[in-house]
Amino acid sequence: MTENKRELHSAAPIGMFDSGVGGISVLREAVRLLPRERFIFFGDTKNAPYGTKSREEVLRLSRAAVEKLTEEYGAKAIVIACNTATSAAAATLRMEMPQLPIIAMEPALKPASLLHHDGIVLSLATPGTIAGEKYAQLYALYGKGVKSIPCPGLMEFVERGELDSPSLLSYLEATLAPYSQQKIEAIVLGCTHYSFLKKALHQLCPGVPLLDGNEGTVRQLRRRLEQEGLLAPENAEGGVELLSSGGENAVKQMRFLLDAE
User: Fold this and answer.
1) Mean of pLDDT over the chain
2) pLDDT tens digit string along 4-25?
3) How confident is the model at residue 213 (pLDDT cuts 50, 70, 90)?
4) CA 216, CA 197: separation in Å to the nearest integer?
5) What domains sit in the chain, N to C, each tagged with a CATH number?
6) Angstrom distance (rounded) from CA 105 to CA 84
7) Is the dihedral of CA 223, 229, 233, 236 positive or negative?
8) How far apart, in whole angstroms, are the C-alpha atoms of residue 131 and residue 126?
């Protein structure tokens, strides 16, 4: 990817991408906190999941998503609404496109560390996220008492729209079973898809705080836009456009999740 030399404009949209529909959880928070902004969300459902792919493949797919959002839609900033893509691609993309604000996800290990006392914290994430350098750095700083649990296949429940199905509950029960006799102080949702599984997790772990990085990511986006003078004008009318490599059915699923209560 060549360095992007074009001028950035405050009236331009914000580009956001994920391996599928999970990043809609970040988009929902962005629409709430930045109502005057226009968002272009691209879900790469055709190539999902990213969490079991090689770092090189995730980087290639992430580059393609950023090129689409900047070259076709003129995005003034990019949000990588995917923990796996953050781990594999964020640093490289920032070096390749230094002019473009690129905001990325971060598993909520730091806020979880504030809740850790004498129990354990469970960190659920894709195998790709847990194996990544970014996660290792966070774990070194805030990993005391944290049990990192790779969850291959979990994001696909959200992609299929299974947010409380018997098979989903069985998956989660089996995943959490080894820790059922321990005091769980918090559960980190280390994949943007998992934010849509809060109801099911509350059912299995009532009263346990569920932490994702969505709000913190959007607040960082707002800070960067302010620093760069790229916040939408006061009279701007916000909006959302949804795109998917997986066709119209995937777009319908994204719309359903965006509008869900």
Assistant:
1) 94
2) 445 788 999 999 999 999 999 9
3) very high
4) 19
5) 14-105+214-259 (3.40.50.1860), 109-211 (3.40.50.1860)
6) 9
7) negative
8) 9
38-90: per-residue pLDDT in tens?
A: 999 999 999 999 988 999 999 999 999 999 999 999 999 999 999 999 999 99
**Model confidence over 21-34: pLDDT tens digits?**
999 999 999 999 99
Positions annotated as catalytic residues are: 82, 191
Could you give the percent of the chain with pLDDT greater than 70?
Answer: 97
Q: What residues contact 102, with CB distance under 8 A and at least 6 apart?
A: 66, 77, 78, 80, 90, 93, 94
Structure token digits, residue 51: 């969490």
